[in-house]
Amino acid sequence: MSEKQQRQVTDHWSDYWARGPLTSLPDDFSGNYDAEIAAFWNARFRDLPELACLLDICTGNGALALLAAEYAAGHQQRFEITAIDAASIRPDLVANARPELADYVADVKFLADMPMECFEGGDAQFDLAMSQYGIEYCDQAQVAPIIARLLKPGAELALVCHAADSDMVSTMRHELTEYRRLDALQLSRSLRSWLQGQLDSTRLREKLVRLAQAIFPEYRAKRSALFGFVLQAINQLVRLDERGLRARRDQIAQWLAQLDGGRQRLDDMLRVNELLASPNWYQPYIDAGLVLQDHGDLLYRQQHHAGQWFVFRKA
Ligand SMILES: C[S@@+](CC[C@H](N)C(=O)[O-])C[C@H]1O[C@@H](n2cnc3c(N)ncnc32)[C@H](O)[C@@H]1O
Q1: Whether residue 31 is found in the same domain as residue 144
Q2: Å from CA of 116 to ligand 1 middle
Q3: Residue 13 shares a structural domain with residue 102
């Protein structure tokens, strides 16, 4: 993939992380990954030597890397954690917004704008390579031999991936139908036309009011986050007169970018999910010399299917 193509793939992630969330699923995890997901990772950290090198692949704003840093701080272990992502990630915003995490953020060496396919690192450098809802976005054939080379003999590659039938994927699929509904009601198109001066403010307001009336019953029935976000924004916009709307032009453009970015991330997440539906998607790791130790389903809070976990070991 050329640098330009890679940028197109990750630009919407860069926009997302620049808003400061800690995880890619803030509606499902209000803080960091917890419960059974944290337990799975803590079991990996527990088996590491006192001084260990960890690599978090596709780290986003660092959720998993910070879990590792927190574990080390609480268990007299010293982890050297490298966390990489192809997007322009912003863990500094997490540290600013949540001072209790600032020391952990400072403990991690974050590498932004670093696709895993380009990460060099040292041979046999890491005791654990890990990824939470991340590795599936990479080119498996390219990254598998890189990861195998980076691991020390006996070291683990541990993964938590989405699963085609996980509750989060069902939620994503539902959200996609909502985006399609907003497309059919021409939300992005109307806002874009107004921003480009092809639609006047009166017509924009009429369209937005009609759209709000159309989706409100669905919002009331399901309280969806997306429709809630759209209704709240429309509620603000339709109260504004011509001058008020013009004064908020930048805010409206940002709002449209946020909406479009959300749709792109969703498409991205559902696209990688198709990869995971293939039973041998992880064959490149076996071909690269890693041995699958175990794998299973991850049940979150004893009821939500949160994905699948895999543990590979380098011989
Ligand atoms: C669903 S997010 C997961 C982020 C984080 N692990 C979490 O759980 O919050 C996927 C991340 O993978 C990153 N990504 C996609 N392709 C990548 C690649 N080839 N190399 C490194 N990072 C990549 C994206 O930029 C995005 O931040």
Answers
A1: yes
A2: 9
A3: yes
pLDDT, one tens digit for every residue, the chain (315 residues): 556 556 667 889 999 999 999 998 877 787 899 999 999 999 999 999 999 999 999 999 999 999 999 999 999 999 999 999 999 999 999 999 999 999 999 999 999 999 999 999 999 999 999 999 999 999 999 999 999 999 999 999 999 998 877 888 888 899 999 999 999 999 999 999 999 999 999 999 999 999 999 999 999 998 888 999 999 999 999 999 999 999 999 999 999 998 998 899 899 888 888 888 888 899 999 999 999 999 999 999 988 888 999 999 999
Pairing of strands 78-84, 126-132: unpaired
Give me ligand 1 centre to Cα 135, in Å. 7
Q: How many residues can be counted in the chain?
A: 315
Is the CB of 32 inside a 6 Å radius of any atom of ligand 1?
A: no
Going from the Cα of 296 to the center of ligand 1, the distance in angstroms, rounded, reads 22
Q: Using CA atoms, how far apart are residues 110 and 82, in angstroms rounded to an integer?
A: 6
66 Cβ below 6 A of ligand 1: no
Domain that holds residue 36: 3-161+278-314
Please report, for residues 12, 38, 194, 205, 295, the alpha-carbon distance to residue 188 in angstroms, rounded to integers and kept in the order given: 16, 38, 10, 13, 42
Pocket of ligand 1 contains residue 87 by CB under 6 Å: yes
Contact 306, 169 (CB under 8 A): no
- Considering the domain architecture, whether residues 132 and 247 belong to the same structural domain is answered as no
Same domain assignment for residues 152 and 299: yes
